Amino acid sequence: MYTAISRAEKITSIIEKRRPLAEKITGVESNLQALKSALKTLEENRDRIINQVDDAETVGRLREIDLATLQYKITEESKKLTVLRERFSRQTLNIGVVGLMGQGKSTLLKSLSGLTDNEIPALEGSACTAVRSTIVKPRP
Ligand SMILES: Nc1nc2c(ncn2[C@@H]2O[C@H](COP(=O)(O)OP(=O)(O)OP(=O)(O)O)[C@@H](O)[C@H]2O)c(=O)[nH]1
Ligand SMILES: [Mg+2]
């Protein structure tokens, strides 16, 4: 009984530790959004000024500034951060185990989870689990 409680506490503590990471990412995401919108304004202003200026050299220099690529990069990085934030916001610990038949995958999961052969059969003989299995332990 004691180990079951301590295991639940450990899982809760791991999930809790992710929270500040998710919050940190939220902060970075909103900074990036602000930066992106500032770059958009800058680009609009640049385009407007280009139409007002006659000097070819100045126009050339203004055109050279690659604001589009910067905005694109920000969008790409933001997408990656969203994936990470969603991961860190998960309310579950997801453990994936892959390996050859009979290598001890189910035994490892049994040992990690405290579950028995009833929930995760790990038995001698030929292929036992044999298919991709999803074991979900409902939170109390
Ligand atoms: N000696 C030894 N036997 C193990 C170990 N881990 C698992 N076994 C035994 O190996 C057999 C197969 O283990 P499973 O955990 O069912 O292996 P599996 O990878 O889940 O197998 P499949 O689901 O059939 O692919 C069982 O009889 C286990 O008791 C280990 O570390 N040492
Ligand atoms: Mg198995």
UniProtKB/TrEMBL annotation:
Extract the InterPro entries matched here.
Answer: P-loop_NTPase (IPR027417)
For the keyword Coiled coil, the answer is yes
Q: Its domain of life?
A: Bacteria
Which residues does UniProt call coiled coil?
A: 25-59
Answer yes or no on keyword Coiled coil.
yes
Q: Which UniProt keywords apply?
A: Coiled coil
Q: What is the protein name for this chain?
A: Dynamin-type G domain-containing protein
Organism lineage reads as: Bacteria, Bacillati, Cyanobacteriota, Cyanophyceae, Nostocales
